[in-house]
Amino acid sequence: MTLPRIVIERCHYLARCTEEPGAITRPFATDAMRCAHELVSEWMREAGMAVRRDNVGNLRGRFEGSGEATLLLGSHIDSVRNAGKYDGPLGVAVAIAAVQRLHDQGRRLPFAIEVLAFVDEEGLRFGSTYLGSRAVAGTFDLADLDRVDASSVTMREAVRAFGGDPGRIGDDRWKGGRLLGYCEVHIEQGPVLEAHELPVGLVSAIAGQSRHRLTFAGVPAHAGTTPMDHRHDALVAAAGFVLAVEREAVATAGMVATVGQLSAIPGAVNVVPGGAVLSLDVRHPDDSVRAASVQRLLAQANEIAAGRKVRVASELLAENRSLDCSPRLTALLSRSIEGSGHPVWRLASGAGHDAVAMSDLTDVAMLFVRCKGGVSHNPAESVTMDDVAVAIDVLFTFLELLSES
Ligand code: HGY
Ligand code: MN
Ligand code: MN
User: Fold this and answer.
1) pTM for this structure?
2) Where in the sequence of the chain do the CATH 3.40.630.10 domains occur?
3) Out of 17, 225, 291, 374, which residue is the most buried by the measure of CB atoms under 10 Å away?
4) Looking at residue 302, what is its pLDDT?
5) Which ligand neighbours the alpha carbon of 83 most closely?
6) What is the rounded distance in angstroms from the CA atom of residue 137 to the CA atom of residue 169?
C-alpha cells in the first residue's frame, strides 16, 4: 500500500477512537485518547521509532540520526466535539510517513527526528489550549492542573488517571539537546488553497487568539408568574452580548470572534434563566487590535448586564500571541514545495496550532494541505490522496534539504 493511502487510512482508523459513537470526539486523557495512543505508537514503531509517553500524555516517537541535534515534527491527536478526521491526525500521520520512507530506505540523517503526537491542542475538556506542546516547550502553567471538566474532575486527577504524574509535568520539557526546529503539517481549514487550485501552502504567520468564559448572573424565576418588567433574565443579557460580539468583529477588519458555547441555568423550560455561561473566542493577526476589541467587549458585557440588572463576571481561559514562522525553516520548506513542482503560496493561519506553543522552544514552520471547501471542525473535513502524496514528498524533501544545510 502506498504511503499516501496509508496516511488516509490511518486518519480513518483514528476516527474510530471517540468518546461519542457516531461522531469524532477525542478529548484529553480519555479512553478515546488511549485508543489513539495504541494505534499511533504502533505506527511509530513500524517506522523504526522508539516510542515513549510523557507525563502530560504526549506520545514521542524518536528516529535516531548520526548527529547530536534533533528535528521535531508532529501535530495533535485530540479533537473538538464532532470533529473531522484530519485536524491534527493528518500532521502526525504525514510525519510518521516521512520517517517511514527513511526507515524503508535504510537511511539515517545527520540529525535525529522526534515525532510528537500532542495529547491536547483543542482544549475541549478543560478549556485550555496546547497542553501537550506547552509541556514540551516548558511553558505548561501548573495552575491549569486545578481546572475542572464538566464532571468536576480536575486536570491533575485526569493526568494521573491517564497514567501520568502531574507532579512531574515539568520533566516533560524538552531536554534532548540542540534542536533544529519544529515543522508541522496541518490541513488549511480554510478556502485559500482550493481557490488557487494548490495542493499545499506555506504558512507565514498564525493569528493570536484569546479565550474567555463569561458568566451572567440574574434571578431565576417562574416563567408563568413573573411579569416581563420584573425579570432579571441572565440569558437575554447573554444574548445581547452575543450580538455585540458579532458587531465588534464585523466592524474590525481582519477580526473573527465567536461565541461557541452558551448554556442557560438552570436550563428548564418554565424557569427564567438565573444564569448564563458563554465562551468568547477572539482572533486577529495584530495582538494590540485583538486586545482593544476584547477590552471593548468586556466593557459592553458590563453595560448590558447593568441595563438588565444582572451581574457579569469574565475569566480569561487562554491567550496566545500572534506568531511569525521562522524565516530560516520557512525558506527551506519553500524550496521543498518548489522541488515538488508546485508553486509556493504563502498564507497566514486564522487557526491556532501547536507551532504557537513550540515557538517558545525552537524555530517553527508549517505546511498547509488543501482541504475540501475549507471545511474543518466538521465531520465533512476531507483531503485527497494526491494532496497527501504532495505533502509527504514536500516534508521528505524538507528533511533532505535540512540535512544538507
Ligand atoms: O481553535 C483553533 O484554532 C484550533 O483548532 N485549536
Ligand atoms: Mn482544531
Ligand atoms: Mn488543529
Assistant:
1) 0.93
2) 3-206+322-404
3) 17
4) 98
5) 2
6) 11
